[in-house]
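Please, why this fold?
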Amino acid sequence: MSYRYIALVNTGRSWSNGHAFALDAAASQAGLSRRLMSDSITLFASAHTPTLRVPDGGIIVGHLFSANSTDPITEAHLQGIAEHSCIRRYLTEHCWGEYLLVMPGPRQPSEVIAMRDPSGGVPCVYSIQDGCGFLTSDISLARQLHGYQSRVDWEFVAHFLAYPHMKTRRTGLTGVRELLPGTSLLLQTGTLEIVHEWSPWDFVATAQRCDNEAEAIADVRHAVESVVKAWSRLDTSILLELSGGLDSSIVAACLRDVPSRVECCTLVPPIPGADERRYASVVANDLNRDLHIEALPFERACFDAPVQPGAVTPRVTALQFAIDDVMHAAADRLGVTSYFSGGGGDTIFCSLGNASPAADAFRRRGLSCALTVVRELSELHQCTAWRAGRLAVKKLLAAPKPARRPDSMFTNPRLPTITREDHPWYSAPEDALAGDRERIFDLVNTQSFRDSAPRGTVRPMRLPLLSQPVVEACLRVPSWMWVAGGRNRSIARAAFADVLPSQILNRRSKGTFMSYSGTAYRRHIGKIREHLLDGQLASRNLLDMDDLRRFLDSEQPVTHSSLMRIFDLCMIENWLRHQCAPSHSA
């Protein structure tokens, strides 16, 4: 199961014996037990949530690995950390995993420090006022142990309509914030400060760049193999989710010799477009495993699906719910202990799809290198070298694109202009390359992947390509190397060329769920119309009702952007209805 914990903080006074006893009793009813108690922190966790005690009275929730080993770190290994002046820096520079560090401050026991690892594998939201509050993986635990009462933050909702799926500190619940991956919370004398401990920008700096293609290939191979094998050692059985594409196939190749039982699974919708069983079968056969083919009927696309009690923001669309529901049922039937996915691979392996690599090459390597990359881009995108070169020059001369543009489709045009909330990874250096900007901005979007897969609350969801060593190794490789030979994700292909089936290695196309989504939309149009025209968003005047009615009543084919927007609006509406239900209301 996923990580489940709550840390109650109180920097004003020590816990009384009576209060501590009452907390233990309430935690026991919630399936938790006390793992840490200090003057300012009491942390409870479920039996399946791993924890490690660290020197100076702290605790690590989750899994921790050494940068030089695939073996999990033990408490004995952590004793040497006391020699380092900053444990937070030590963890980000010498370790990786999915973890949350919680500890008293070094100067006063009443201080509190919490750090979330760069991958964000352990969820963490918090609410702290006047030195008291909680940090937790699941807001429903805060309702049980802290008495927190949920209230919708409508300003957040307006922002989320403009910037859907964007991860920020703010959540959809009043007074609740998220500790973003790679950041720390410092609570000192009632003052709360957020510190950025890890940044992807450090790994695209000139001093970190990998200039040798052979070295880049070796580094990426080592990072991915090591991470996949490290995670697999924690699981006795694995459901490998095969999409038929390169990324999940690379994860599969790294699972070939692991001792865990590996079950391969792929989804097949009732219409063409996303049927990947041909390619998934090749990968499963290469692993000498059977391929479990799971049907994805249109009925699974539920626009009023149950919302996880711990969901502090809208994250699961009807399509994501359908996929999640089918995969969860398959995992139950096959009796596996975890999921493995290649999610995030497009971003990690720098599949940009534009002329940025040529512009980057010109800025860092000069005209000769840029011309070579232009030719490779023309082959990759099946266009003339003149067109690829023209787009590269345009990219080179254009002002940097913003990290996100607002989406106003179907929203009330009379709403005030929404100021975009910030994310620390959006703060690009002035001399940042176009390709680096785009890949790091996309990396922010991957932080929502776990939130959109609630099956990960039942059994671990392993996303090895988003683990810190893989991200760092791939960021060090400049964008132009990823299109070498006119192939996208070229370094990843070369790194695993000896273990991938040729059909996968040389594949250029990829399936899409557009046809499935379009058919699901038409079949559920009645529910969608009721959901959006008579819901919370409409009652708050957040939607352009006339425009929305025209769209819903139209017989014209829907575009990809409008269809995805409708799915997002339904996702937001569904989350709001659950939050505004009597059991959630303050």
